[in-house]
Amino acid sequence: MRLKISLLKEPKHQELVSCVGWTTAEELYSCSDDHQIVKWNLLTSETSQIVKLPDDIYPIDLHWFPKSLGTKKQTQAESFVLTSSDGKFHLISKLGRVEKSVEAHCGAVLAGRWNYEGTALVTVGEDGQIKIWSKTGMLRSTLAQQGTPVYSVAWGPDSEKVLYTAGKQLIIKPLQPNAKVLQWKAHDGIILKVDWNSVNDLILSAGEDCKYKVWDSYGRLLYSSQPHEHPITSVAWAPDGELFAIGSFHTLRLCDKTGWSYALEKPSTGSIFNIAWSIDGTQIAGACGNGHVVFAHVVEQRWEWKNFQVTLTKRRTMQLKLLSKTLPHQPFGYPEVRNVLNDAVDLLEFRDRVIKASLNYAHLVVSTSLQCYVFSTKNWNTPLIFDLKEGTVSLILQAERHFLLVDGGGIYLYSYEGRFISSPKFPGMRTDILNAQTVSLSNDTIAIKDKADEKIIFLFEASTGKPLGDGKLLSHKSEILEIALDQKGLTNDRKIAFIDKNRDLYITSVKRFGKEEQIVKLGTMVHTLAWSDTCNILCGLQDTRFTVWYYPNTVYVDRDILPKTLYEKDASEFSKNPHIVSFVGNQVTIRRADGSLVHISISPYPAILHEYVSSSKWEDAVRLCRFVKEQTMWACLAAMAVANRDMTTAEIAYAAIGELQIDWEKIKAKIEMEITKERERSPSGQSSKNIGLKY
């Protein structure tokens, strides 16, 4: 991934540009010390002066009024707040009319930001005050006051907290009067810029110590850069929270949310004082010290699935590469080696610019500004195309049978034939803060973590969009960080795994039948997880270990043999804060903290065992275990046999792992419990009768 820089030969402003802001994905406003507000149209490459401000107004910061107000949608932003050096902020319409000017601070107003709902404005100034205003410019409160200038401010994701700078310190202050204030030393020099992303809840800071840093919302340091040559003068999160950009003297850098750098560009801009991302997250604009406005488009994003690789080469062009097969005779567990000389290349052209894409389950789903394209890996020449309800897609999730699109208007499920299936809704739903960690999709279920109460998961039927089962929510005792549905098996056996804020991994059934389903802990200190796309095998990075749960349901059958069903590998080679990118077939892809990808191959035999058991081929399963001669396989088979009430196979498997003293009473009690559950599910009692006969 890199930035494609666009810079005019001659600047449109005569003095330094202090701030920029997007109205749509193709229209930008810039403000300069030459007192001009200029509109840029990227479709026609035209610029026009909107208004010339009075000579005593030197603009410092600009922020457009939020587009979405609850259910009322605006097509584009209609007004913005402009802060200036004369101690005022100005509410200005899109046409350049100054609607209101408000005396706000003694000295310059250094920053102004609307909250996400557009109901409040926060301003900070050289006088060290942080003030909250109504949307009409009426003072509500002075949130805080200090002896040093406040250079930057940002709202928390819920608009209930404000982050601001205080010299070398960062301070998070809730709006409630008696709530606890969080403060910590963040840099060795004065902090110049901060940003707080609403999707990933992470904080960016940068300052005169020439470093940028990433923090969580508790003030814990996640990443600190090496010192740059010059102070970092601007930072900005991409809307979806996956990327961020930083600006310095003749420097523009694109970074991953974990901190490592994708690309470094050195445009002739002077210092970049302000960075703004377009609404669709595809391009950046920077306010430059030499009067220029620099534009940078994010290109060369890459998606891989099996031996297919798709790269975004231009705004409307993708390159498809069919990679040659992995060379044979590679030692088990070693990285794959490809013969790249035989790779086939093709181009995919689009009418509009590409915004989001996803490649999985033999399909490539691409959203442009107006349409959605669905390609099959069996036929790349004739994609299925349909129009989007709202252009800016922020998330695409895929399952085997269908895919999910999230945009500013809602959540939509489509089949790969382009047929609309459902659109789940719940009270207080905010689609702008959903990401791949808080939404999960399987063939029959959609799971969404609630943002208002982070201990709750909403569960929906994929086919109807209605709440699953009896409509009861899945509730946990602690805040949930990440959720993931398993991908295979029957609907009644669907499981969801999740990590809570204590980094404990839990698993539970998504089907709720009147009484509480048991939520069982699988592991501790788990940082990231993923289900296999071919069978219900779960993997995770657990403290210093990479762990694979070959049959997670063992916790419900016989917890004593759970450790024997695991595969563990030392994870110290992945360094700090690695992340699981994908789990396809028997290959797990992990991204290390430095951005490099590591591929781990796990044994293919447990997946084959899952396939045999799902087809009730018990004799084949026993033969496979005898061939492989691994205790892990026998332990998985033992648990699978008990779960499926095949006692003959269970006895063989338990004997093979040395568990000769089988607690048949415990197993009998478990089967009785299963019969009770089946009776609840089947009023006729037919299925439970069959179970009893089998037992």
TrEMBL record:
Record-annotated IFT80 second beta-propeller domain positions: 336-605
IFT80/172/WDR35 TPR domain ranges (all copies): 633-660
Localization per Swiss-Prot or TrEMBL: Cell projection, Cilium
One GO cellular component term noted in the UniProt record for this chain: centrosome
Native organism taxonomy: Eukaryota, Metazoa, Chordata, Craniata, Vertebrata
Protein name, per record: Intraflagellar transport protein 80 homolog
Keyword terms, alphabetized: Cell projection, Cilium, WD repeat
Pfam families: Beta-prop_IFT80_2nd, TPR_IFT80_172, WD40
Biological processes, Gene Ontology terms: cilium assembly
